[in-house]
From TrEMBL:
Keywords: Membrane, Transmembrane, Transmembrane helix. The chain crosses the membrane at residues 35-53. This is 6-bladed beta-propeller.
């Protein structure tokens, strides 16, 4: 006869719906807290690893690949989308990260200048009449201007504004990508001054221009913003804002994003705010002499001559005009740009990378005449364009 074991379990009765719902909520809350804790630690590990890699000084540069250049030595380079634009007097070539030509567009430019936006870029012949507009697939439009080109700025939609030379009566003309004139302004130098810089908003609605006026024996600059949309249609010459600055020269102006505009003078920078009607928000005076400028959609940067004139420093500001980093640098660099959180400088065969927090990641002599340095896909990876080759390099400890 088989003896039955006594069960140690005792019936506790039937659970009510309230008790079932309570236990379910308690279980789900505990699971959510556990998952959140695991996710938090994973994020901390990933962020810590990333910071360890990116905020670290490297002593060596490894050449992972090298591609010999077969074209002429007068090429210039700029990053665009996931590739590289190579342009020269003979036209434009779009390259992938292995130096493979994705497309080629011929052209004739005595002095090519370029302006790059997110989805399009434009090449024009400074002093000539040729203008070509491209997207990542190739030529989007081309046309000839009636007067010599001086400066250009292109919006993300392919609308382009151009300062055209015409003696003492220059023109600022805005075209679509096919060359159709959208807006034409004849500049009265006697009342406005001569246009020195311009930039279009990303959507092509607002055009910001700086003018230099030396009339009546005085020097002053003007910042004028034109709105070609609803806000400016009933305004004289589409002007929605205008401001004068005495004893200042303003050679640079740019939109950081949709609503922030920056004007750089010879000893300060001014932040304007407003998507449709940009207005002055803050002016920051720089005590040192400006040697170079750069910016991204988040940061405003300068290379400055130190006050004691013994060297240089790189300083970084946010959109509010607050200084977030200033660091002494070794050597002199005439080429500077910023991508993401990295400031890239180069001169001759030497290049230097500094992070937005002031960490000098690398400062090396590559033994080649550097024409451009562009961050590549991946961590610690860069494209370096030289006179005779394109290199892919990695930073290593």
């Amino acid at each position: 006869m088989v003896r039955k074991r006594k069960s140690t379990l005792k019936a506790s009765g039937t659970l009510s719906m309230e008790e079932i719902n309570y236990l379910t909520r308690k279980y789900r809350t505990a699971r959510a807290k556990r998952n959140a804790t695991i996710l938090f630690f994973l994020i901390m590990v990933v962020a810590g690893t990333y910071m360890l890699i990116t905020e670290h000084a490297y002593s060596k540069v490894y050449k992972a690949a090298s591609y010999t250049k077969t074209s002429s030595d007068n090429n210039q380079y700029v990053a665009f989308h996931n590739g590289i634009v190579r342009y020269s007097r003979n036209g434009v070539t779009y390259l992938n990260h292995k130096n493979k030509e994705l497309w080629i567009q011929s052209g004739q430019f005595k002095n090519p200048i370029i302006d790059v936006n997110k989805n399009v870029f434009a090449i024009a012949d400074c002093g000539g009449n040729s203008v070509q507009i491209f997207d990542r697939k190739g030529l989007k439009g081309e046309f000839e201007t009636t007067l010599p080109v001086e400066k250009i700025s292109i919006s993300n939609q392919g609308v382009i504004s151009i300062i055209l030379k015409n003696g003492n009566t220059p023109y600022i003309v805005t075209y679509d990508s096919s060359g159709n004139i959208l807006v034409e302004n004849e500049v009265s130098v006697s009342s406005l001054g001569y246009p020195t810089a311009l930039d279009m908003s990303e959507d092509g609605t607002v055009l910001a221009v700086t003018y230099l006026d030396t009339g009546n024996g005085s020097l002053k600059s003007k910042v004028i913003c034109y709105n070609f949309g609803e806000k400016g249609k009933n305004k004289t010459n589409h002007i929605v804002s205008q401001k004068e600055y005495d004893e200042e020269i303003m050679p640079e102006i740019y939109f950081m994003d949709k609503s922030n505009l920056v004007v750089v003078s010879d000893h300060s920078f001014i932040i304007y705010s407003g998507k449709d009607v940009p207005k002055k928000k803050k002016e920051v005076t720089l005590k040192q002499e400006i040697q170079g400028t750069f910016h991204t959609s988040k940061y405003i940067g300068f290379i400055l001559l130190k006050e004691d004139k013994t060297g240089y420093e790189v300083c970084l500001y946010n959109k509010a005009g607050k200084q977030i980093m200033c660091k002494d640098i070794k050597g002199e660099y005439s080429n500077v740009s910023m991508t993401g959180s990295e400031i890239i400088m180069y001169e001759g065969s030497r290049y230097c990378v500094i992070t937005k927090t002031g960490v000098e990641r690398v400062n090396k002599d590559l033994g080649m005449n550097i024409l451009s340095v562009i961050p590549a896909n991946g961590i610690n990876k860069y494209w370096v364009m030289g006179t005779n080759e394109l290199r892919v390099i990695y930073l290593v400890r």
